[in-house]
Specification:
Layout lengths: L1 E2 L3 H18 L3 H22 L5 E7 L3 E8 L27 H8 L2 E6 L5 E8 L3
Antiparallel strand pairs: 1-2, 2-3, 3-5, 4-5
Helix pairs in contact: 1-2, 2-3
């Protein structure tokens, strides 16, 4: 699928993803993980990546996993190199945001990144579909 790097584009992509997941009959637990991963990556590209052309997402649904591959022409960013923020001592010290990459690491079994020879970011996530 392809969609522009805008909030409206994100909504179109998320709707297409929901239709695909509806047709797959995937269990609710893995489905939620796929939807969360899609939202986290797509919104980060839109908010911070400064992509100029469409975000491309390939979704491969297998028996044991879903593989999501995102491509965009935004600024280079390898989430595997992102340092996790320190755990706050209390809720009062906790900052809003900054934990999305940690969440992606937790819900995915594989995270690969490549800056392609065409100057595009390619992020691949694998998420188990068996409960």
């Amino acid at each position: 699928m392809r969609f522009p790097p805008t909030l409206v584009g994100f909504e179109e992509g998320a709707s297409a993803l929901r239709r695909l997941l509806d047709a797959s009959g995937m269990a609710i637990g893995p489905r939620n993980k796929v939807e969360v991963a899609f939202e986290e990556v797509a919104m980060n590209i839109i908010r911070y990546g400064r992509a100029e052309s469409d975000i491309e997402v390939r979704i491969d649904i297998g028996d044991a996993q879903v593989v999501l591959t995102f491509e965009d022409d935004g600024v280079p960013f390898d989430p595997r190199e992102h340092v996790a923020p320190a755990v706050p001592a209390s809720l009062d010290e906790a900052a809003v945001g900054g934990r999305g990459i940690m969440l992606l690491r937790k819900i995915s079994t594989r995270m690969d990144y490549l800056r392609t020879s065409h100057g595009r970011n390619r992020l691949t996530l694998a998420i188990e579909t068996r409960c």
